[in-house]
Each structure stands twice: as structure tokens, then as C-alpha cells.
Specification:
By secondary structure, the chain is of the alpha/beta class. The protein contains 6 helices and 11 strands. The strands form 2 sheets. It has a 9-stranded mixed beta sheet. A two-stranded antiparallel sheet has the order 5-8. Helix 2 packs across helix 6. The radius of gyration is 24 Å and the shape is globular. The relative contact order is 0.16.
Length: 304
């Protein structure tokens, strides 16, 4: 009798386990199906202008960001090398129609047409998310502060080139979680920040030093990763990204991908992909990199 009871108990447990698995599998499959059914965000990358290797950076950004986030990046690349080119993509009033986010990675400091700037900013003012990278902060100096207000910071120059330390000021922020307390860029050109606008929130700063007197310590810190609210639009910004090596750095691509999603209010598991595995490559011969920014710059070195 006891043996028969034991057998019945085991059969009941087995049936219960099978029922549980039958319920769990569809739930997991349903979640996977729901994620696969989410349409990618449509992102427009506008790039080109002076002083940087935008021909390669457009590919680094497109491939790196699409590998990390559920987005489709369309590239508008202008091969001109000056600082005064008005990109044709901005010629129409509805230039941004159909996109969920715009990435500005351009260098046009000497485009000083205020009406042109207003046309660029109009969709962002009305709520279109944006990401601004490196020399985008030095663009469209039309005699007003409107572009600076849009980016969230005012900057008119940079210092000498060296790999600089980035200090994570807000590790609890979803954009910055998982990056640790600090890291150092492979190469660098730290922008000097004259003003952080009240609408902006600094997430990380870079340490300004004199590379010829490294033992002298930190001269000053400058915001290098932040978020901003430009009227109805969210803006994510970083001044990192002068060199291709900086843009290829997994940390850079990881936090910029998160910044894109944050700007669209989509920083969640449905849009964030697992971090790609990074394969170590054999060292290659160094080739000449991009030239210094030709926009008006300042080189600030503390004198004793």
C-alpha cells in the first residue's frame, strides 16, 4: 500500500513539473517574441566637416550603435573639410521628418547664419531627441547662445591632446551604470567647458592636466558626458570622440548607445541589446590621425 502511494506521489510531482514547464516556456517565448516585434528606432546620423576622420567615424558609429541598441542608423555624410559648409540635409524645413532621433557629429564652427541654426533646432525644440558628439559642441556660432543652450554646455576651445581620465559622477544613472568609477580614454582632446546650462545634468567629467607636467596633478575638471533638456526635446551629449580610437572604444559605444535610447525614453531591455564580445586584435602600425580642430581654440596650461 505504501509503495503504491509513493508511486502515485512521484507521478503527481512529475505531472506538476511538466505543467509548470509548459506554462514557463510559452511565457519566455512570448517575451522573446515581444522583443523581436519591437520596431527599431530610426536614427539619422549627420556627420562631416573639419578636422576629424568622419569618413571612418560614420561607419564606427553606425556599426557600433546598431550592435548595441535596437536602432537603424541612416547616415548623411558631407565630405567637405571646412568649417563653413551648410549641409544640404538641413535645407528643407521638414528635414528631420520620419526619424526618432538625430545624432549630430559635425564640425561647422563658422556657419553663422542664425536662420539656418533656427531651422536645425526647430524639431529639437519641438521634442525630437538628439545626441551631440565632440565637435558638434563647437558648431553654428551665429552670435547667439542658442546652439550652446541646445547642447547643454558652452565651450569654445580645448587643450593639448592626451589620454584623459573620465570620472563617473553618477553611477546610479541608467546611462552610466556598469562603467565603474573611472576610466581613461585611449587618446583624447578634452574640451574646456565654460558653462554648464541649468537644464543640463553632468554624468561624468574629464580631468584637465598639463601632459608635460603630469606630476603636477589635475588643473581642473570639465564635463564630458551629460544630459540636457532643450525645451521639449531630450539631448544626450559627450565631448569625447576626436580620435577614431576613442569612438572604437567599447565604453564609448556602450554609453552613447544608452544615451541614444535615453533621449528617446527607450532605455530598457526591449531596445538595449547584449554587449557585443570584443575580440583582441593584433597591434597595427599607427597612421596619422585627424588634425586639431580649426575652430577657435584655447590651450590652457597652468603657469607657475
Amino acid at each position: 500500500m505504501l509503495r503504491r502511494f509513493t508511486v502515485l506521489c512521484l507521478l503527481a510531482v512529475a505531472c506538476l513539473a511538466r505543467l509548470t514547464l509548459a506554462e514557463e516556456k510559452p511565457a519566455a517565448a512570448k517575451a522573446a517574441d515581444e522583443k523581436a516585434a519591437v520596431k527599431p528606432l530610426k536614427v539619422l546620423l549627420i556627420t562631416g566637416g573639419c578636422c576629424h576622420d568622419y569618413a571612418k567615424q560614420k561607419d564606427i558609429l553606425k556599426e557600433g550603435l546598431e550592435a548595441r541598441a535596437n536602432i537603424e542608423v541612416t547616415v548623411q555624410y558631407n565630405p567637405t573639410k571646412g568649417t563653413d559648409t551648410k549641409f544640404e540635409v538641413y535645407d528643407k524645413d521638414n528635414w528631420a521628418d520620419g526619424y526618432d532621433c538625430i545624432i549630430h557629429n559635425e564640425c561647422n564652427a563658422n556657419v553663422k547664419d542664425e536662420d539656418f541654426t533656427k531651422r536645425i533646432l526647430k524639431p529639437h525644440r519641438e521634442g525630437l531627441p538628439a545626441v551631440v558628439i565632440h565637435c558638434a559642441m563647437h558648431c553654428y556660432r551665429d552670435g547667439t547662445d542658442e546652439w550652446f543652450k541646445f547642447t547643454g554646455v558652452t565651450t569654445r576651445g580645448h587643450g593639448p591632446k592626451y589620454p584623459f581620465k573620465i570620472v563617473n559622477m553618477n553611477r546610479d544613472n541608467p546611462i552610466m551604470s556598469g562603467f565603474g568609477a573611472e576610466w581613461t580614454t585611449p587618446k583624447g582632446e578634452l574640451y574646456h567647458i565654460d558653462k554648464v546650462w541649468d537644464t543640463a545634468k553632468v554624468l561624468a567629467h574629464g580631468e584637465r592636466i598639463d601632459p608635460k607636467k603630469a606630476d603636477a596633478g589635475v588643473i581642473k575638471t570639465d564635463a564630458c558626458i551629460w544630459t540636457n533638456q532643450y525645451e521639449k526635446g531630450r539631448v544626450f551629449g559627450t565631448t569625447v570622440g576626436h580620435y577614431n580610437e576613442e569612438m572604437s572604444d567599447p565604453k564609448f559605444l556602450n554609453y552613447v548607445a544608452r544615451g541614444v535610447l535615453w533621449s528617446c525614453d527607450k532605455l530598457n531591455d526591449q531596445y538595449l541589446k547584449p554587449e557585443p564580445k570584443v575580440e583582441k586584435k593584433a597591434a597595427a602600425l599607427e597612421v596619422p590621425g585627424p588634425q586639431p580642430t580649426l575652430a577657435p581654440v584655447e590651450v590652457s596650461v597652468k603657469k607657475k
